[in-house]
Structure formats: C-alpha cells, structure tokens
Specification:
Number of helices: 13
CATH superfamily of the largest domain: Metal-dependent hydrolases
CATH class of the largest domain: Alpha Beta
Largest sheet: 9 strands, mixed
Number of domains: 2
Number of strands: 19
Structural class: alpha/beta
Shape: globular
Radius of gyration: 21 Å
Strand content: 15-25%
Helix content: 25-40%
CATH architecture of the largest domain: Alpha-Beta Barrel
C-alpha cells in the first residue's frame, strides 16, 4: 500500500482541463535528461503515462502545453528523508504543506520519516499517514520505525509494516545504540526483503554537543560533537552488515571519515548505500559563528574538509543519493539560545539548486532522482527513464533562473531555512505527478 497522489489542479490561465479527468500534456522545448543521457525532445503525456518523446512533436487538440524552453526535463525527484511531522507536530508541518513544498522543489515522491508523535511503529499509524498522503501533490510513502516508539529497546512489528508496502525502516532522529538488537533487526530485515536505514551517532560520544567539535566550537564556547561519534557507529554497522548479509542505508553522512569507511565497504562488495544532505555539501561549522539556531542540525555542520569529501563522494558515486532531511520547526521553537534549540533545517524547495551548485547538474539529478528511487523501491514509477510507457512523474528545471530565498514565501509552515536571503541559481518551473501538473510556472496548483 502506498499513498498515491490525488488528482491535482486549480484552474490556471492554461487549459488544465476538468479536475480529476484524464488530460493530455505537452512538455515542449526542453532537453530531456535521465539515466540514458541528454537529448532535445518534447514529452507527450496522456492519462498519467508518457506516450511519446521526441523533437518537435505535434500538439494534440486540447492539450495543455507546458513551456520547457531553456529547461531540462527530468524524472521527478525522490527524497529519501523528509520529516512531515504529522501526526503530532502539525504546528511545524503537515503532509499537505510538506507535500506542496516537495512539489515546488521538483519532487514527485517523498519518504516520510517515522519520528512522529506517535512514531510510525505500527500498521495503524502507517495507514493514517498513507491515507493523508493520498491528497498530497506528491506520492508519500513511509519509513517504519525499527523499534517500538524509536526507544531502541524492542523491535517494531516489521512484518506487519512490510505487508503494507513499507520498504525502509529507521529510528531516524536517534541511532540504534544496541548492537545486538541491530543485528537481530538486520537478520529480520533480510528475511523480509527490506532495508534498514541508520542514523549513525554514538550517544556516549555525542555527550551534550550542539555543533561540530573543532576550532569553531572552541572559539564559540559551544560544546562540540566529534566526528568519531558518527564514524564509530558507521564502522560498527558495517561489521553487522558483513555478519548478516542484510542491506543497510546510511542516513545523512557528514564526515570525511565516514566517506572513507563507506568507500572501503563498497570496494569489499557490502550491500550498503548512503546519502548526504545539500546543507552538509555546502555549509560548514563556520555558519554557527553568529549563534543563529537555524544552523543547528543533526548531524552538525562539519568542517570544510568534510564538506569537500562529501562533494567528492557524491561526484564519484560513493555516496549514492542526496536527501533533504527536511526538518521543519515552528518559529518559536528555534527562537531560543543555540544550545536549547531543536536541530533541523528546511530543505525541499532549495535542495535541487543547492545540490546542482555543489556537484553539477548531471550528478545532482542522478543523486536526487533515479538513485534514490531505486533505494526506496519506487523505480517502477519514479526516476525514469523519460520514455514512452513510463509513468508521468516529471520535473522541469530551469538551471539559469536566479531567485532569492524568502522564508515567508516558502510553502512550509516553518521558516527555518539556512539559505534565507541567499540568491540561488536554478529553479523548478513545472512538476508533473502521475500525469497531473501540480506546479506550473513555479506556482503550486493547489
């Protein structure tokens, strides 16, 4: 079971057709970019499916034409790591507002993290989120918790959740500290054919740290989180993967040491994948100099050396995916001293532009579209190729568009973007989910 996107669309000045009716779309004048390469082509969509791709296609009578001049047309992005907060923290985000932000960012599918209140550790809660996701402008799938209540003490009913179609399990927000329990979870996951995703952080090494442990933390007098807190758990879990043979996905890696461990594991042939975030690719611990809590995130922003290692790892494919870790917080929650603020940043609407600037267009698209679609088990309908017969989940991205990030104009209920006031290059022009134009000319259609 998955949360399928509803038929989207308010009427625009284009012919968007009758709400809910099958429609014909022509995406015209762009360059199609997918895993097969780049070529100049128009894309014709009928009733949710790509039916023709080629240069200078004839426009059928009554078709909605979406201008893609100067743009790239790509398989819709897939975010492996989105915090939608619902149920329990709707003051920060809802599935509706987070889904709208995702569509504006070019995503056609998101994986909702389970650290909600209550946690997604049962079929009942998972079903609630999936049902709410049916009205979102993107496909919403859920990650299930590994342990009950994400408390790290006993395994959640993974078979029950897997029967609903849950393919990824994680206690994200905290690392599973008990190595024996993690090994049991891996053995169980292998039998179910699902993937465990780990938030790598040794709590004893983290202590009370609020930012990266280094020269900036010493200068600012803020307790630091050492890189070893992440790397120790990466090393432990690689050993457990080796022992179990089960798949594991490493969430939001942030250090050069973690990259080195991952690279060696892949050379060994271990069944592991990993993600980095746009903010860890581009921002560093120096951002914390003003004590602004918007830059407090978990794992923390690291050093220049770490950011460079992550960019290189995304560039050469060692790190498979870029995921947003979109983590909204209500404004009052962040309006406190740095060490008291909850960690987390918005990411959905800025991710593509930030990642393209960090690693280049082709690598960014691979890391944000077809690679995460495969990891999430969504590659039957997301991630391309953009070809006749494929599901019409498509993003149209204008790489030359320049825009200044205004928190008040973002779709999220929260405002905690680290890119506020910054001018980014590249913006989504259109997003098509299941054949419906849910973003047209940069505007959400509902």
């Amino acid at each position: 079971m998955t949360g399928l996107p509803g038929a989207g669309g308010r009427a625009s000045d284009r012919d968007v057709g009758r709400a809910g009716a099958p429609r014909t779309l022509m995406v015209r004048g762009g360059d199609v970019v997918d895993a097969g390469g780049r070529r100049r082509a128009d894309v014709l969509v009928e009733a949710g499916t790509v039916v023709r791709v080629g240069p200078d296609l004839a426009v059928p009578t009554g078709a909605t034409v979406l201008d893609a001049g100067g743009c790239v047309v790509l398989p819709g992005l897939v975010d492996l790591h989105t915090h939608l907060r619902q149920p329990g923290r709707e003051e920060a985000e809802t599935i509706e507002t987070g889904g709208r932000a995702a569509a504006l960012g070019g995503f056609t599918a998101v994986v909702a993290m389970p650290n909600t209140e209550p946690a997604i550790d049962s079929a009942a809660v998972a079903t609630e989120v999936l049902l709410l996701g049916r009205s979102a402008p993107v496909e919403v799938v859920v990650a299930g918790a590994i342990t009950v209540g994400r408390a790290g003490e006993r395994l959640a009913p993974m078979a029950e959740l897997a029967a609903l179609g849950v393919r990824i399990f994680t206690d994200d927000g905290s690392g599973l500290q008990d190595g024996g329990l993690m090994l049991r979870a891996l053995d169980y996951a292998r039998g179910l054919g699902v993937t465990l995703a780990q938030h790598c952080e040794d709590d004893r090494l983290v202590g009370g740290g609020s930012m990266h442990e280094g020269s900036w933390s010493s200068r600012l007098g803020i307790p630091g989180v050492p890189a070893a807190a992440e790397e120790a758990m990466v090393a432990r879990d690689l050993a457990l993967v080796r022992a179990s043979g089960a798949r594991m996905h490493f969430l939001h890696l942030s250090t050069a040491g973690s990259v080195a461990l991952l690279r060696a594991a892949k050379a060994e042939g271990l069944p592991v994948t990993a993600e980095a975030t746009p903010h860890h690719l581009t921002l560093t611990d120096a951002e914390c100099a003003a004590y602004d809590p918007v830059f407090k995130v978990n794992p923390p922003l690291r050093s220049d050396r770490d950011a460079a290692a992550l960019r290189a790892a995304v560039g050469d494919g060692t790190v498979d995916a870029v995921a947003t870790d979109h983590a909204p917080h209500a404004p009052e929650a962040k309006d406190v001293p740095f060490d008291e603020a909850p960690p987390g940043m918005l990411g959905l609407e800025t991710a593509l532009a930030v990642t393209v600037a960090a690693v280049g267009l082709e690598r960014a698209l691979a890391a944000m579209s077809w690679h995460p679609a495969t990891i999430a088990g969504l590659d039957d309908r997301h991630g391309g190729p953009v070809a006749a017969g494929s599901a019409a989940n498509v993003c149209v991205f204008d790489p030359g568009a320049r825009w200044t990030v205004d928190p008040a104009r973002l779709a999220s209920r929260s405002r905690n973007t680290p890119f506020a006031g910054r001018t980014l290059e590249g913006r989504v022009r259109h997003t098509i989910t299941a054949g419906e134009p849910v973003v047209v000319d940069g505007e959400a259609q509902r």
